[in-house]
Amino acid sequence: MRPPCGVALSLAVLLFARSGQAQPMDRDVPSSPADLPPGVSAVLWKLSVPPQLAPTPERVLLGEKLFNDQRLSVDNTVSCATCHDPRLGFADAKPVSEGVKGQKVTRNSPTLLNALFNASQFWDGRASTLEDQAKLPILNPREMGMPDEAAVVAKVKAIPEYVRDFQKVFNREVNFDDLAVAIAAFERTLYSGNARFDHFITGDAKAFSAAERRGWALFNGKARCNTCHAGNVVSPLFSDQKFHNIGIAAHKTDFPQLAREGLRVVRTGDEKQIDELALETRFSELGRFLVTKQENDVGAFKTPTLRNIAITGPYMHDGSLVTLWDVMDHYNKGGVPNPYLDGGMQRLGLTEAEIDDVVAFLFTLTDEQFAKFATKEQARQRGLKNKRPERDTAVAMGKKGNLGDLAPNPDLAVKNPADIGVYGTEAQVKPASTPKP
Amino acid sequence: MTFRMKLLVGTGAVLSFAGGVALATGPVSPPARGTPAPEVKKHELPVSKDGNLVVGLCDGETSMEVKGVKAGESLTRAQAQHVSGALMEEWLRKNPNAHWDAVPLVAQAPAPGSTTPRTQQPRTPPPSSKGTVREGGVTPESGGAQVKQQLAVPIQDGHTYGAFSDRDEAIWAASTEQFVDEGHRVFHDAKAIGGTVGISCDMCHPDASNTHPETYPKYQVQLGRVALLRDMINWCIENPVRGRPLADGDPRMRAMEAYIYAKRKGVKLEYGKK
């Protein structure tokens, strides 16, 4: 098996070979790590990692220490790893995250795996870089609860170990910006792309079961997942990194009224105010609107990556959907109608068997290092399969409501939609065989 | 009538014709009298007395015996390049007036006394040459929201799908180049296209020259019928390359089409041109 061209081309200098260097990288173009797995794109790595912020071993080490240190929180109980637990796929398996004093926020903890490739950070994209992102939870009263930047710096400065580390890594005393740079450097090592899917798409046709292969076809065809969860070898995230209103909050929120109120509150707001509104108030449901104040962004949230989706539930920005079957039910009925519903939402008309196939495919996107976790999670979710609060078969099948026509239901024996266009290294893939009836 | 429509009509004609052939040659239907459907022409190669390998040229007439290589054996890349070069020279000698673009060579002056003008069109444009569209994609400043406000439509204004960033465009460009690169690989690899004699596409078409994808569909003499680019690619695979034809949807065929078209960026579409 050949490695994908994109990866092979960029096998260059191994970053970590440049040890003993305390100064920022002085070269213009950083090279990506030489050992990128097949499902990680070297092109995207270069596109996503600013040259001066490429992870150096010293920064990564310090960043990891800070990431796991509960002393960054006001009462020494919460670290970054509390909600981004490495054992739980760098998420927390809770519907919404809990910060200091058991306070709940309003949003679900997104995985940090491949977060370095995101075009923007947070569910509403209110931070454009990992560095900006890393600062906000430390200061949010419901997350790590530190009152302000000065307090964080003073607290870290009181720990001699960090005074030494910051001096060694950044050649100056502790400050908030460098702290964020170190944490972000650690996060830039959290790429993941060694899934069964990657083995399948780079030529191992046997890596998929018949159900998973049917699921991949549905993903690209009738289920229309790839409209927003697009992926290829250059951008293997299965996310368009755009913001869509899919109606998750619509059954509990009067969007137009909330948007009018939100506008009044937000117009004067700075970054910190938006951060607090997003995590504490009912305005959270306005999503991207809080950031852009554009009406069409009301209730819109970022398309998350589907890499490792099976182990990073519960799902959606508020963790309101428990299993991937619930997610499929939500999309199958075309989401929940509201004035700002994304134009791409429509009923899908998927049968139970087809939903099972898509879910089976989604499990193939789990990195091999979490294989055990995924097996457990698959059993757990399957156990809940018959509890389906989101299911509305009548709407999905078009017997009720009016949510438009179905996407064409292709005959796989004639044309498999998974073969349309090119994933990337497709020339190494044997065309999907379809058992003849 | 737009070009696209013509293209569709042309394709339809080819398809229905092929269907007719399939019917006429089916085992059940009796052979049609009077106007038998023309078989696709095949280049019958002479057999070498010494059992040497014989390689055919794409004119369907010329062939060449390779001394020292037995039939059924494969040529090395150097040998194959030598044979294809000799055959092409022979064809040019037989067809002094043929329109055949000079092989693009880097920094080589035209041969002394050459009267063949170099092609006017850029053959290998830089892959990421930009159009006239403003860079940076749609932004809030583009005024999409204001338009909808004027129309008093309080719903999605398409911004979600229209707001493409530099990052998006970089991903699109890299994805496309990746596909083209894959075509480049297949085009230059006799094994990848299933060739049995070691001849690869680039040996007669360096840098995809003289493939003229912009002229399809057109009547292709070697095939004796109207062909699409992929039909001609398959003819080359079957005849000079001596491999088995690829399915229309074969990833290698699609990648080669991508590569060949990419090499003619900026060239005017001119279907039917000979």
Task: Please give a structural write-up.
The complex is a heterodimer of chains A (437) and B (274). Chain A has 437 residues and is an all-alpha fold. Chain A folds into 3 domains: 20-187, Cytochrome Bc1 Complex, Chain D, domain 2, CATH 1.10.760.10; 196-246 and 303-428, Orthogonal Bundle (Cytochrome Bc1 Complex, Chain D, domain 2); 255-298, no CATH class. Chain A contains 17 helices and 2 strands. In chain A, helix 14 (324-332) crosses helix 15 (352-363). The model of chain A is unreliable at 1-28 and 424-437 (pLDDT under 50). Chain B has 274 residues and is mainly alpha-helical. Helix content of chain B is 35%, strand content 7%. Chain B is built from 7 helices and 4 strands, in the order H-E-E-H-H-H-H-E-E-H-H. Chain B has helices at 3-24, 77-94, 144-151, 159-162, 166-187, 229-238, 251-262; strands at residues 52-56, 63-70, 218-220, 225-227. Chain B has a two-stranded antiparallel sheet. Chain B has a two-stranded antiparallel ribbon with strand order 3-4. In chain B, helix 5 (166-187) packs across helix 7. The chains are: A mainly alpha (437), B mainly alpha (274).
